[in-house]
């Protein structure tokens, strides 16, 4: 079951029209670290044509642009794997 922040991340990243979008709350693995305890650390895997022709940094910037206002208050850490459909 997804928490509300996971749902919000998915809704925002839907703007990239992903073929695949997985938002995993990894906060439990960071117990005792800032942002743990039910929210804050997320892993995102996103496959979208929107990343075609872009390098890794540019892809990450596209993702961060959609969630920047959530950081660092609600999202402490965001691990991103951004691919095009051709890279699967």
TrEMBL record:
Species lineage: Bacteria, Pseudomonadati, Pseudomonadota, Betaproteobacteria, Neisseriales
Example GO BP: iron-sulfur cluster assembly
Assigned protein family: Belongs to the BolA/IbaG family.
Xref: PANTHER family: BOLA-LIKE PROTEIN 1 (PTHR46230:SF7), PTHR46230
Record-linked Gene3D superfamilies: BolA-like
Descriptive protein name: BolA protein
């Amino acid at each position: 079951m997804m928490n509300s922040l996971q749902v919000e991340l998915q809704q925002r990243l839907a703007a990239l029209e992903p073929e695949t979008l997985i938002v995993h709350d990894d906060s439990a693995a960071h117990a005792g670290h800032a942002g743990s305890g039910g929210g804050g650390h997320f892993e995102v895997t996103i496959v979208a044509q929107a990343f075609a022709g872009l390098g890794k940094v540019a892809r990450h910037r596209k993702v961060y642009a959609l969630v920047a206002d959530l950081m660092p208050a609600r999202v402490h850490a965001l691990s991103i794997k951004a691919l095009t459909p051709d890279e699967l």
